[in-house]
Amino acid sequence: MDQIKVYEVEFEDALSRTGYGRFHLKLLLLLGAGYSCIAMEMTAISFVIPSAKCDFQMSSSNAGLLNALPSLGIILGSLFWGALADVAGRKWVYSSSLFLTGLLSLLSSISQYFSLFVILRTLNGFCIAGALGLSLPYLSEFQPQKIREKVLCTMEIWWTFGIIAVPCLAWLIIPLTIRLENEYFIYSSWNIFLVCTSTPTMILGAWACSFPESPKYLVETGQLDKALNVLGYIFKENTGRRGGEFEVKSLGEKSVSIIDSNINDNRIKETNRSIKCTLKNFKVQVKILFEKEYLKRTLLICFISYCLLAAYYTLMMWFPELFSRFQRFETLYPKKSTSVCQVSSVFVEEKACDANVDSQVFLNTLIIGLACIPTSLWLPLSVKTLGPKFFIIFCVVLSASVTAAMHFVSNSLQNLILCCVFEAFTSLAVVTLYCALVDLFPTNVRTMATGLSLCFGRMGALTGNLVFGYLIDVNCSIPIAMISILLFVSAFSTFFLPIKAKTLPSKSIA
Asked: What Pfam families does the annotation carry (predicted)?
């Protein structure tokens, strides 16, 4: 029997020697399906509002608050989960945050009070931040460098699946005449809808526990033996051979832990896992991101995220309500032309609460999701040729123009067409931005950078939804103009983002 040769190679070379097969497909299924569930969790509330407004006696400002406060949860959660993932690892943070996202959504489905419902959805947003911020970094750190960008871009397809699945489930469940009611408890079809969106998220969170820690993270934190074990496991899964047959026996890459630079023999001391060390590490990571090497890209990413996500999540969350208003207007005044602002003014004059949602509302939202499929396929096929900066700028400028045109629509069909273009291209820009972010920062601060950008993005979503909810019934021209301006500003700012620059080397922390 021939003796197996022993190689000492750097991490990227060792990762490429594990092959590409069963393990990577399972990982993509987990994180892709998780991404779809995150999309469902983030958009499900927009379908609940038209149905639950009578149960909770919601006004437009209440609806804006319900759309906005989960963003507050994401703001608080982004930095928390990002810092924790860079200290405790990707796997457990991802799996626990995903499971808790589903659990809190499930609990919100039985809430009988608006205040409790808002609190649970805010906590749900807090946990979403962990799963959302880790999806791309965790996936990227298992991918060979030559295909990493394309694999990350396929996540847009999974996001689209989630956007399509939500209206399908809502259309199937919410119109059902199911209602259990007494003086203490009300349970209707929209509650069942939330159960159906939360259950898959919990299942995927539990499944994620069976996956290994990111080998790149283990290398960066000095755990070279554990990283080799993970690479051997990946090799075994991909090839069907024994893990002991993996030809790489030693990693030659010298890595410095972000947790503690004074580590002997590449081992991490258990005391470094303490709360005190976690807080210290959090401060160090933030300090690195705002030092001269990273300052420009950190500020730009945060500003672009604020503007882009303020526009995207505000309109996306209000689509079902706007469609519902259009359908109600066209039912009352058939064949009469109208604009978004005229529809809203008529809505304000109505006093009666009507929880019934026209089936056309669900169909319109489904069409918007289907409109994202061509752009989702276009991104991974062309990102290498055209570059991520092109995608972001082109998509955002087109979306800004479409948003400005919404003020001039005269019927629901024109509104639907513009909404389809907006959703397809704005969501593409968001995913491309976060795919590019993976290459802008080194492993040891990558999830922190992602969390920070998500934090600013959700600040934008928070303020956008609050302003939109307040002004839609007062002067809807202002929020539409506001969203269009935010998009144009984010496109202009992207010109200065060094997306094509090589990732700067990880620096030691003294």
From this structure: MFS_1 (PF07690)
